[in-house]
Amino acid sequence: MADPERVLDTRVATTRSCAERATDTLDEIADGDSFVLIADHDPIGLQYMLQAERPGVAHWELLDDGPPYWRVRIRKGNRAAT
């Protein structure tokens, strides 16, 4: 049985930003794996940042286009999963 997909809920307040937590999670997962980001704001800035800083590494799939929340599946890899 496959491991359940990791969920990063950034609506929970911490001292770290949504972007910091998401990039750390991206670093922790293996190529080909993904996680679901949940945010209380449109994470489009994070998408632009990842495209600029890590081109081709983070693949973005919008699941819920808020408000009140946004959900995005972010897959790690040098190519999109098929």
Describe it.
The chain is α+β, with helices and mostly antiparallel strands. The protein has a single domain, classed as TusA-like domain (Translation Initiation Factor IF3), CATH 3.30.110. It has helices at residues 18-28, 44-53, and strands spanning 6-9, 34-39, 58-65, 70-76. Strands 1-2-4-3 form a four-stranded mixed β-sheet, with helices on one face. Strand 3 (58-65) and strand 4 (70-76) form a beta hairpin. The longest helix has 11 residues, at 18-28. The chain is globular and about 30 Å long. The two termini are 20 Å apart. The mean pLDDT is 90.
Percent helix range: 25-40%
Do you know the CATH architecture?
A: 2-Layer Sandwich
Name the CATH superfamily assignment: TusA-like domain
Shape: globular
| Unreliably modeled segments | none
Structural class: alpha+beta
Q: How many strands, what sense, and barrel or not for the largest sheet?
A: 4 strands, mixed
- What is the top-level CATH class? Alpha Beta
Side-by-side strand order of the widest sheet: 1-2-4-3
Q: What number of domains?
A: 1
Number of strands: 4
**What is the H/E string?**
EHEHEE
Q: Count helical runs.
A: 2
Indicate the mean pLDDT. 90
**Strand content range:** 25-35%
Q: Could you please say which CATH topology applies here?
A: Translation Initiation Factor IF3
